[in-house]
Amino acid sequence: MDLARPALDPELSDLLADMPLMSRLSPETLAALRRMPSPPLESLLAGRPPIDRREITVPAEDGAAIPLSIFSRASTGPGRTAEPAAAPCVYWIHGGGMVMGDRFSQIDIPLEWLDAFGAVVACVDYRLAPEVTGTTLVDDCHRGLLWIVRHSEELGIDPTRIIVAGASAGGGLAAGLSLLARDLGSPAIAAQVLICPMLDHRNDTTSSHQYSGRPGVWTREMNEFGWRAVLGGLTGDEVSPYVSPALADDLSGLPTTYIDTGSAEVFRDEDTDYATRIWAAGGQAELHVWAGGFHGFDALYPRADISATARRTRTDWLARLLRR
Question: What is the C-alpha to C-alpha distance for residues 288 and 232, in angstroms, rounded to an integer?
């Protein structure tokens, strides 16, 4: 049955008409997508005030190297003080269905917060499925975050103002990381920003079924491929809520949360449900459902009116948070 769908924002609809779309992923198409180069980082950094960049690797529990890229305002230059105040940190987790992308994917989003607040931006290159499965992806993110906290003084970071943020799969991993950090008691996370997060491996909401059977930016079938890759055969109680955060029975004690999603996308219902359950547990969450927004609209077309509004609204929320 072909379900009715919310209409796309007219400007986004015109832009999307020129984009090649798929309905499914396969090992062959995934390999081809992985070979596509990311936008050059230099073009994203050009035109900004001077930025210091540091590249490090953190050992995973099994000894694998987890790359981290750390960006901060240049320590020298016009207007720089000898001892700047400790800055907030945005720990960025990239999207890509848990099967593609790298630490520079969607990096223009957190770089806006470096510009606006002087935040230190740390981007983690967690390992991808199907090469690794289960909790390995979120464990990689946790190891990287622990390294950031342990080196916060030398990085100029205020450890009480660490924000985990991510888009799509990265938003799901940010949610899983917040659950893991809460349960382990470390590290302290001040807020989580979940942008169209991938939260529920069951893939069975109304919005999931609405975005099935036709080409799109991210469809139910593509989502199924990603989850199958990351679960690696795990089923039922074997699936950890750190991987599929919608499974968590208890959403109390989480950091203050920002969630946004589009009305015209596969993750709409699982994202709105996650916010509702945070409220039910006595937590604080701000939810935005952008009418006519498809999956990742503000990352793909940042200059569209609705995208600019969505990005500005997130930045305004962070500004209020960091002023407290």
Answer: 33
